[in-house]
Description:
By secondary structure, this protein is α+β, with helices and mostly antiparallel strands. It folds into two domains: 1-67, 2-Layer Sandwich (Phosphorylase Kinase, domain 1), CATH 3.30.200; 70-123, no CATH class. Helix content is 33%, strand content 11%. The protein has four helices and five strands. It has helices at residues 25-42, 75-78, 83-86, 98-122; strands spanning 2-3, 50-55, 61-65, 147-148, 151-152. The strands form two sheets. It has a three-stranded antiparallel sheet, with helices on one face. It has a two-stranded antiparallel ribbon with strand order 4-5. The longest helix has 25 residues, at 98-122. The radius of gyration is 22 Å and the shape is extended.
Amino acid sequence: MKxxxxxxxxxxxxxxxxxxxxxxxxxxxxxxxAALQRLRSQAKIPVPNLRSWGEDSEGLRFLETDLVxxxxxxxxxxxxxxxxFHSLNGEKIGxxxxxxADLAQKNLSQFVEEKLLPNLKSLTxxxxxxxxxxxxxxxxxxxxxxxxxxxxx
Length: 153
């Protein structure tokens, strides 16, 4: 589950003395939701099912998905997954294993290069936006609420 941070737990602006708010957060969340839905319907790669999204009782945005099956990348190195193959007497049972970690990294790289990237490259659109809105990229410009040189821009 991805959840917006409550105001009481956000960093406070040294200039304004108030919790920092991202003016694009709501739209960013809506676009992320739309992107997940589009990938799930059009891509041929594992994409988590979107369970629910919206605002909770406190007005904070959330996004809940199912987990995609698989093994977390750091797990194979923490405990040998092939102890009889990687050791003579099974001494790797329950122990960390560099060979398993290397194999997992190799398999991930192969999946990304051979399946993920080609599949994502095949998805095309005649628009540069989701939900009819484009979030501007980060850049050297300032928002109307920003302080630049002590002046509102």
